[in-house]
Known about the structure:
Elements: E1 17-24, E2 30-35, E3 46-47, E4 50-52, H1 59-71, E5 74-87, E6 92-104, E7 115-119, H2 133-140, E8 144-147, H3 154-166, E9 171-174, H4 181-197, E10 201-204, H5 208-214, E11 218-221, H6 223-228, E12 239-244, H7 247-256, E13 260-263, H8 279-287, E14 294-297, H9 305-310, E15 315-318, H10 320-324
Parallel strand pairs: 1-6, 8-9, 8-15, 9-10, 10-11, 11-12, 12-13, 13-14, 14-15
Antiparallel strand pairs: 1-4, 2-3, 2-7, 5-6
Amino acid sequence: MPTIEPDLHRSMSSKLTHVVVGVIENDHGEVLIAKRPAHVHQGGLWEFPGGKLERGETPFSALQRELQEEVAIQLEAVTPLIQIPYHYPEKSVLLDVMRVSDFHGDAAGLEGQTIRWVSKARLIDYTFPSANRSIMQALQLPDCYLITGDFQDKNAFLAKLGKALERGIQLVQLRAKQLNEHEFAELVYAAKRLCQAYQARLLINSTPERAIEYKVDGIHLTSKRLMRCSGRPLAEDKLVAASVHNRKELAQAMRVGVDFIVIAPVLPTMSHPAAASLGWDGLQQLIEQADVPVYALGGVTKGHLSQARECGAQGIAAIRSLWEDT
């Protein structure tokens, strides 16, 4: 797993208090959390260890110092997880969150704070600052988001989906706009059963009403549906994702309160080779404005994962490379 070098780390806004955060995971898949002292901002809530950058520090060196001072962890290497600009009434912060991939030492609360190793599934049992919601979501999301593509019939569809799930896909968007309502419903129920067998989550590219009726894990909003939303279309226990192509759509996704977004097109695609694409710089610029996990879509494959992460993305979303090659 690569270490973030100072000159590779993406730019930060000078208007926000820059805070580095470490998501430390042990060999049992548990993450380390600590309870904030009662007298500080957001006191009494739980958090992932970290702290503010000091003058002249890089994010990596700041996190090294903070983890050593706070929890006796000697940091060796990290990978980017997510950046979150967040505005509290009393202050604005930029959480620069890194997944700690290599460390030494036995965790201890060196400042008298309570610390705990907690499974990712049990994090919802603890109260965190509002800005941490997207960290929790990023920890639950995989690095690949499959969007279903063309298929001949229901059996062919399920065969393709089954192969993808066998390869480890854990997040699926069912996209089948060519079907009528009855055909679509049949396909959704069959896909739901198959995804449940592999403990994968299924979102449908459809209306919120259908997502509620079919009792799937969530909905993926097209950019058109997103722009028509006046608020979050599903309850908090369901996933809401959206397609975003520009700053206007990104701002709407933040207002609606989506759980993650897909930004496209990053690179030229085989289906639209002449269409304008964002490129990696354009992707990074949009990601820096997002406060939720982001998947890169358009001409990308699993081979682009590290490059997408360097831009701040959760991972990649794809049809051709994740569906058509099954």
